[in-house]
Specification:
- By secondary structure, the protein is α/β, with parallel strands linked by helices.
- 35% of the residues lie in helices and 18% in strands.
Length: 219
Amino acid sequence: MEKEFQKFPSFSILDDCYPWDLSEIYDAPVLLFYKGNLDLLKFPKVAVVGSRSCSSQGAKSVQKVIQGLDNELIVVSGLAKGIDTAAHMAALQNGGRTIAVIGTGLDVFYPRANKRLQEHIGNHHLVLSEYGPGEEPLKFHFPARNRIIAGLCRGVIVAEARMRSGSLITCERAMEEGRDVFAIPGNILDGHSDGCHHLIQEGAKLVTSGQDVLAEFEF
């Protein structure tokens, strides 16, 4: 077991490299395993969350907003299917930087379809996990993972979140932690973005471009 844990370096909440923003949240992770470039933690970051079964319109909306960020912010997401994948890919395709926070050990690939993407991010950007090597995806890992995604960032962009979805819960917690929440509006007929519209009613900023997000940040 000790040999397995030595496969990936880690840092603790007591280390200088531990992000200040993350240390301020409720139930901050004590230890994080990583693969990649820890220096990315020093730069301003924005999280992206949303549906795993997003529409093509939802994915394109995320791509448009991230392209408009002009690589001013590092994009943080969870490497899940749907909106997460669209966010990581948009950052990479625009020459930006990205951080993936996953709900498994760093040597486990979930979903399997994102194996190459996870390896690329780990080799050229940064992958983080609070779970040790070999840890398989368990249902409770993902809400826990989401608190790290939101905690690392100064704001959270949400797209195609339904009511009572994990993404909606993540954004509500982010608002409680004093983070900015940016909601991309969607179709009012299919219910896919009802959570986003609810967040806008609760005080989240409606965004349709990257500049809408950047306007709220002070560099």
